[in-house]
Amino acid sequence: MDTVFNYISHLLDTAAAGLPEIIADRSTELGRITKPIALAIKARILVTAASPLYNGNIDYTAFKNANGVPLFNTAFDANKWKVAADACKAAIDACERTSMLLYTFSELGVTLSDTLTRQMSIRNSTCEQWNPEIIWANPSVNTYEIQRQAMPRLDPARIGNESVLGSLAPTMKIAEQFYTDKGVPMNEDKTFDYAGRLKLRTAVKAEGELIQEGYTTAAMHFNREPRFYADLAFDGAIWMMQKKMFHIESKAGQWQTRKNIYDNNTTGYFAKKLVNWKNEILEGQGLFVETHPWPEMRLADLYLLYAEALNEAEGPQPAAFTYIDKVRARAGLPGVQAAWTAYSRQPGKYQTKEGFRQIVQQERLIELAMEGARFWDLRRWKKSMEELNKPVTGWDVDQSDPVFYYRVRTLYRQTFQTRNYLWPLENWDLLNNPKLVQGFGW
Fold first, then answer.
1. Cβ atoms of residues 168 and 274 within 8 Å
2. Are strands 245-247 and 269-270 parallel, antiparallel or unpaired?
3. For the residues 267-280, what does the mean pLDDT come to?
4. E strands present in 184-291
5. Chain centroid to CA 39: how far?
6. Considering the chain, what percentage of its residues have pLDDT values greater than 70?
7. Mean pLDDT of 270-275
8. CA of 63: how far to CAs of 56, 67, 340, 438, 442, in Å?
9. What confidence category does residue 115 fall into, taking pLDDT thresholds of 50, 70 and 90?
10. What is the DSSP letter of 352?
11. Strand, helix or coil at 371?
């Protein structure tokens, strides 16, 4: 595996040397590979190589090729994290030389409150095509279908339109992983009633840009960080689109509830983050989707990889705090040190490598939620056995009474085994090439 990682890294270095820093002909060549893209992907690869799945994983001690040579180096190598950190910094420098920066919303002719401007900065960092935060936008991956799956029937006046489904349903785990408005986890915030998070509460006028005034919903939907409201919608949530403000009502019998056996939301949460704010359901024409190339990598992703690699290489340090705090600042949150010192039940958590590791990992799960990163991060952190064997849960969405709707129900129980970290080879390949060995555990 070390040979494979080194080979790919070398290829990317070779490619980067001959690639342009920017795309000059933006009218026809946007999406083609640039030097910053190559260096950023190299950084991601080297962080993966340094991570627990591949660095010091003793599960693979007996995993050898046909000649009896071990396929994994099972001895931990701390220098891999130093190499990964250097690669991240080189990629950041290359990106910032070409004026890449974390996206903030500032559309001409649009005046919004600070709360909604913050939400638009978070949502459009993913959905605004070719925005200055996106390192690599892949025009081969169109977002029409994923937006159709994520967007519910927002407009009750056009409820008969079947081109939107709202069936892409984030789970309860995703909803709970977002911080409180103090910038720390719900179960750590000493100002937040974590034990009472499932109780019912009615929104007041001051909360009207986040939750419909007078609407009853779960207490855990209040006093959460801006990314919670930008990324997710829930029963009672406000959903802003370019031409109109909508609210979600998704209990049984309401307009965002199940309409047939196919297009329905099973958890009570909607993936607002994936829906472009310019989409519109047109009278008699169905859904108009403002499509955009899928963002394979954003600058926020690279900043968090750098903070992670620095911590793993040398423990918590100023540069690691600087880069994670850049991402938090765009999300409207105080820096890690300030937030944990003032509000966490574990105020010194950020001072140790293990504690700061947990903070960086949760920051990645939040910032990159629903962008496909969690699947790979849990694997490279070697945390899939821990996280993916937990039950998948959501609200009891077939109920109409809030008392019964806001009960957590188990939707699915999955099984993740050690062998699932690596996929198997097809029998056909093994028969054709006797020098191949089947994947570990298969």
1. yes
2. unpaired
3. 95
4. 200-202, 216-218, 233-234, 238-240, 245-247, 269-270, 280-282, 286-288
5. 21
6. 98
7. 97
8. 13, 11, 42, 10, 12
9. very high
10. S
11. coil
What is the token pair recorded at 327?
A: 């991402």
Residue with tokens 């799956």: 149
pLDDT of the residue at 163 = 78
Q: Which residues pair with 295 in a beta bridge?
A: 137
Cα torsion 132, 321, 372, 172 to 10°: value is -120
User: What distance in Å separates the CA atoms of residue 164 and residue 12, rounded to the nearest whole number?
Assistant: 40
Residues 86, 367, 351, CA angle at the centre, nearest 5°? 60
Question: What is the distance of C-alpha 122 from the center of its chain?
Answer: 12
Degrees, nearest 5: CA angle 316-321-327? 140
Rounded to a whole number of angstroms, the CA Rg of the chain reads 23
pLDDT at 63 over 80: yes
Which letter does DSSP use for residue 70 in this model?
B
Cβ atoms within 10 Å of 284's Cβ, excluding its own: 6
Q: In whole angstroms, what is the distance from residue 278 CA to residue 288 CA? A: 9
Q: How far is CA 241 from CA 123, 204, 230, 275, in A?
A: 11, 22, 12, 9
**Inter-CA distances, 180 with 68, 183, 363, Å:** 52, 6, 13
Rounded Cα–Cα distance for residues 428 and 435 (Å) = 13
The answer for residues whose C-beta is within 8 angstroms of residue 120's C-beta and 6 or more apart is 105, 107, 112, 230, 240, 277
In this predicted model, what pLDDT tens digit does every residue of 88-112 receive, in sequence order? 999 999 999 999 999 999 987 889 9
